[in-house]
Amino acid sequence: MLKKLSIAFILSFIFSCNSDKNVHVSNKEENTKKAFPLYLKDLDPNKPLSSAIKRSFENYEAPRLLDNELYTNFKYSELKGFDYHNGDGTISRRDPSKIIKENGKYYVWYTHRETPTEPKGFKGATDVIPSQDWDLAEIWYATSTDGFTWKEQGVAIPRPPEPKPGWRSVATADILKFKNKYYLYYQAFDAPSGKYNKKRDAYDICPVAMSWADSPEGPWTPLDNVVIPFGSEDEWDYRVIHDPNPLVHNGKIYIYYKSGMDKRDENRKFWDTWGVAVADKPEGPFVKHELNPIMNSGHETIIFPFKEGVAAIVNTDGIEHYTIQYAKDWVNFEIASVTQLLPTAAGVYSPDAFDDDHDGDGITWGLSHFINAGNNWNKMYTKLGRFDCDLSQKVHDPSLKQSNILLPNDWYFRQGLSAEQRKRIEERNQ
Ligand code: AAL
To answer: Ligand 1 atom closest to Cα of 344?
Structure first.
């Protein structure tokens, strides 16, 4: 009954958009047996539907992309103001935080690595040579008046002295503003990332730490304790706590985070899943939600308030990658749309991210990162860029609701067959 009501509601919405056409009235029996109508406004709510068409009405905000506020294309722009040492791999900026606007300026925090060499893997790592692009890093920040040209202000969170959390590296920060104070949550590495730790059967020793300040300019005071600990040995979030993403809901702090479970020995691959931990105060204690993990995909998912719930940009990894998702209750996510060229490790400008007003405006831009920015894995570094989109209740830009981004032909032919795949094909041809 509810489903038919939702279809009827959507049809009435569609009809109201096309009220200039006459509506055919026919008897119920005749109508339900007739073919699916040319115009949606003529569809009988009682007509039996295929699963795909039923899904179009029930699983999504609207059956047409143009009407779906949680569908968008993404446009990208280079940034000005950041130097990358001519791409020699010795400097990297990545994993931008959400963006906030204070004192008429935009602020963003990000992982800043500046090392004598490019990353050399955990076998080549030393006290000064990074194992990974985010090893031996600090959290820096930059400001901008237009979101395109940025002024790097310097370090916000340095690496603390050993054995404090994050002495090896602090990375992948996100910002929270709560009761007029500012909080940065970040991964606090206590070993070179990627270096296998036999005791923990893990490759990353990086729970989440936090520092706070009275101003976005700092100075930042670190809490010496971890705020989101690893799970217990048999729990889904035992190995890592990545990508903390704090928001405010019903007066509480919600921090969404990633972990990797179900490790496959043959290729060290994990199933990237997401959880949420909730606390009354920014310093915790954070209680992990009983339904965790609450997302099944996304490597650096970004989550922001939208209407009464939260929306998520679920970029790479997992069965539901390349989707925009929505959780009306902030916990149970459903796919809202499938899209292309999603930003990686997005840091969104969500003006009301901390307003807790149950009516999130959504977003129209943010920063994301571009790994291997020099197209040379031997000089690996990452750079920041800007994306623009229409995931906002306040904007309706049809040019950002196109159904397909036509990619240049050579992008396809660059995904060529391996020698092994060609060999298999040739054998099949015998
Ligand atoms: C990022 C994030 C986390 C990981 C590494 C640095 O994209 O998922 O921060 O630890 O990669």
So the answer is: 7
User: For a pLDDT cut of 70, what percent of the chain falls above it?
Assistant: 92
Tokens 């990237």 identify what position? 272
CA separation for the pair 81, 149 (Å, rounded) = 6
Closest CA to 47 of 7, 2, 10: 7
- At residue 112, what is the residue type? H
Task: Judge residue 261's burial from the number of C-beta atoms within 10 Å of its C-beta, 0-12 exposed, 13-18 middle, 19 or more buried.
Answer: middle
Ligand 1 centre distance from Cα of residue 71 (Å): 26
Cα distance between residue 396 and residue 216, in whole Å: 32
Whether this prediction's pTM lies above 0.90 is answered by: yes
Contact 133, 94 (CB under 8 A): yes
Q: How many CB atoms lie within 10 A of CB 164?
A: 14
Closest to 107 in 3D by CA, of 283, 366, 392: 366
What residues are in contact with ligand 1 under a 6 Å CB criterion?
95, 134, 171-172, 187, 204, 242-243, 299-300, 345
Res 80: pLDDT: 98
Tokens 């001519």 belong to 86
Q: How far is the CA of 94 from the centre of ligand 1 (A)?
A: 9
Give the integer Cα–Cα distance in Å for 367 and 350. Answer: 12
What is the DSSP annotation of 195-233? Answer: --BTTTTBS----EEEEEESSTT---EE-SS-SBPPPPT
Residues contacting residue 196 through CB under 8 Å, at least 6 positions apart: 122, 202, 203
Residue where the block lists tokens 């032909």: 409
Q: What pLDDT sits at residue 140?
A: 98
